[in-house]
Design goal:
The complex is a heterodimer of chains A (253) and B (255).
Chain A lengths: L1 E2 L8 E8 L12 E8 L2 E6 L3 E2 L3 E4 L9 E5 L1 H4 L22 E7 L4 E6 L1 E2 L6 E2 L2 E3 L10 E8 L8 E8 L4 E9 L2 E6 L9 E8 L2 E8 L2 E6 L12 H16 L2
Antiparallel strand pairs in A: 1-10, 2-6, 2-8, 3-4, 3-7, 5-6, 8-9, 11-17, 12-17, 13-16, 13-18, 14-15, 14-17, 18-19
Chain B lengths: L1 H8 L2 H10 L15 E5 L1 E5 L3 E8 L2 H4 L5 E9 L4 E8 L5 E6 L1 H4 L3 E11 L9 E2 L3 E6 L5 E4 L3 E6 L5 E3 L10 E4 L9 E7 L6 E5 L2 E5 L4 E6 L5 E4 L7 E6 L2 E6 L1
Parallel strand pairs in B: 1-8
Antiparallel strand pairs in B: 1-11, 2-7, 3-6, 3-9, 4-5, 4-7, 9-10, 11-12, 13-18, 14-17, 14-19, 15-16, 15-18, 19-20
Classes of the chains: A mainly beta (253), B mainly beta (255).
């Protein structure tokens, strides 16, 4: 099951087009759009009334904040919703290729960029860390650069955790940011840190890092992959944990 | 007994048979690759009076191996997969690298594909097969680059030898697969869908009600004017890059 999310703030807003159809099949008329938010220490699920046609739910910026996530489900499936832990309630969005919504980021003074976005449920129950090279997707010549880091965690809590900009060659921490679970976090990046050996590293929680550059009225937005997706051989977890260990040693030294 | 059946079903022959008959198909398989392979996506370059391309990649091998005799080779082809240029990068000082692909660099205009491979002159201390997904930026009318990551495994090369392999994306002999892009293309001045044939053989595809042929590894740009794109063909994983145009802006993303 996949979750969908957006962002709002710092002069930006988002729109989501959530398909009603799987990418190898036709739309389902009984599928509904639901939003999930933390309320009083529990997960609360609500039906979302948005513009729709036979193929898509069109979620406008007024329905999007940095905490809310969206899912697709039938009314019957919602009866299995767990208020204490975020768990899969169906497999409708578990497809290959991945089931994705279009996440369009719009600047209020003009400019837009989008990518096909999803937050897989198999990331929701896990703690860990992410490593992502920042120079690959940020542009030191742009007027503004930032990272949107989305975390969705199984428990209905807004827990603080830290992310770092780390120079891998010099083994130095350049910046430290305070982030929150179950939120689309905004991480501003100074152009002096957009250097070839600098990585974003999160300590304790996973997430999807989305890199945004802005120049004049033009935007670029794209996400990075976790290191384990690079390795196709069986020793993937060993290799990635060796790599992550180096970063843990830097932040705990 | 169960594990024996699983081993047969996931072997190169097992995958071929499953996909031949379209039964419990396997969309992507690396089972036929040699150990120690560097797998590349089919990246797309485009250069003309309005476009230039930027390639950002990480020197991955030093992150996963202690070997120091590493290099990176990048091979450029035109849209019909005729070779244009090959470069080899050695002793890179930084992990993240960037190449601007313009007429000065490539010597030609147009569009085509390129592939990145990681090499080592010495045997690795532990075998590894990996793919560098990388990021390609497209600048339209000299504006900000719109970035997209690699999206389709196409070719592979031995890390310590020059044996090339392909066809990680699987196909069927009989069954045709549907794939509908999960976005609407309404509201833009223009949309282009760019395909790379991930196979070493010619394929036929149907995009909505129009038929197209793609020769081995061919790159094809298709002007698209409809709201939805449904792709039908025997290739299991044929996913285009989308270029949406609105005034002087472009929005590029993988599907």
């Amino acid at each position: 099951m996949n979750y969908f999310f957006g962002y709002s703030g710092n002069g930006f807003k988002a729109q989501l087009n959530v398909p009603k159809f799987q990418n190898r099949s036709t739309p389902r008329s009984d599928i509904g759009l639901w939003s999930i938010e933390i309320n009083g220490g529990l997960w609360k699920i609500n039906p979302e009334d948005v513009k729709q046609d036979s193929y898509f739910f069109y979620i406008n910026s007024d329905k999007i904040n940095n905490h809310k996530v969206f899912i697709l489900a039938t009314k019957k499936e919602i009866s299995n919703f767990n208020k204490k832990e975020l768990k899969s309630i169906n497999s409708y969005t578990s497809t290959l290729p991945a089931f994705r919504s279009n996440f369009k980021l719009i600047h209020t003074k003009g400019g837009f960029s989008s990518y096909q976005s999803e937050y897989p449920s198999n990331m929701v129950g896990k703690k860990g860390s992410i490593i992502s090279n920042i120079k690959s997707l940020l542009d030191p010549n742009a007027s503004k650069n930032f990272i949107l880091l989305r975390n969705i965690y199984i428990l209905p809590k807004k827990t603080l955790f830290y992310s770092y900009l780390i120079d891998y060659k010099s083994k130095k921490i350049l910046c430290k940011y305070k982030l929150q679970t179950n939120k689309t976090n905004f991480i501003p990046i100074d152009k002096k840190h957009i250097l070839p050996n600098v990585f974003l590293f999160t300590d304790g929680y996973l997430g999807i890092p989305i890199y945004v550059s802005q120049n004049n009225q033009h935007l670029s937005m794209e996400h990075t992959h976790p290191p384990h997706s690079y390795i196709l051989s069986n020793n993937v977890f060993k290799k990635v944990s060796e790599f992550k260990k180096e970063f843990y040693e830097i932040i705990h030294s | 007994m169960k594990s024996y059946i699983h081993r047969i079903a996931t072997s190169h022959l097992g995958v071929k048979l499953r996909n031949f008959f379209g039964l419990r198909s396997v969309p992507i398989s690396f089972s036929h690759l040699q150990q120690n392979s560097s797998v590349s996506d089919g990246f797309i370059w485009r250069i003309d009076k309005n476009f230039k391309t930027k390639f950002n990649f990480t020197d991955l091998l030093p992150l996963f191996s202690k070997n120091i005799n590493n290099s990176i080779s990048i091979e450029f082809y035109d849209n019909l997969h005729r070779p244009i240029k090959k470069i080899q990068l050695k002793k890179l000082a930084n992990l993240s690298q960037e190449i601007i692909i313009d007429k000065k660099f490539l010597g030609v205009e147009g569009y085509g594909s390129f592939y990145i491979y990681h090499n080592s002159t010495t045997l690795l201390e532990e075998s590894i097969t990996f793919s560098n997904r990388c990021y390609v930026g497209y600048s339209y009318k000299n504006n900000l680059y719109s970035n997209v990551h690699g999206n389709t495994y196409v070719k592979s090369k031995g890390i310590s030898n020059d044996k090339f392999e392909g066809n990680m994306i699987q196909s069927s002999w009989f069954k045709k697969y549907n794939y509908t892009l999960q976005n609407s293309f309404k509201g833009f001045d223009k949309t282009e869908l760019i395909f790379v044939n991930p196979h070493s053989f010619k394929i036929k595809i149907k995009l909505n009600d129009k038929n197209f042929n793609l020769s081995p590894y061919e790159v094809k740009i298709i002007d698209f004017k409809e709201k939805f794109a449904k792709i039908r063909g025997k290739s299991y994983f044929l996913r285009p890059i989308v270029f949406n145009y609105l005034k002087d802006s472009i929005d590029v993303y993988h599907t």
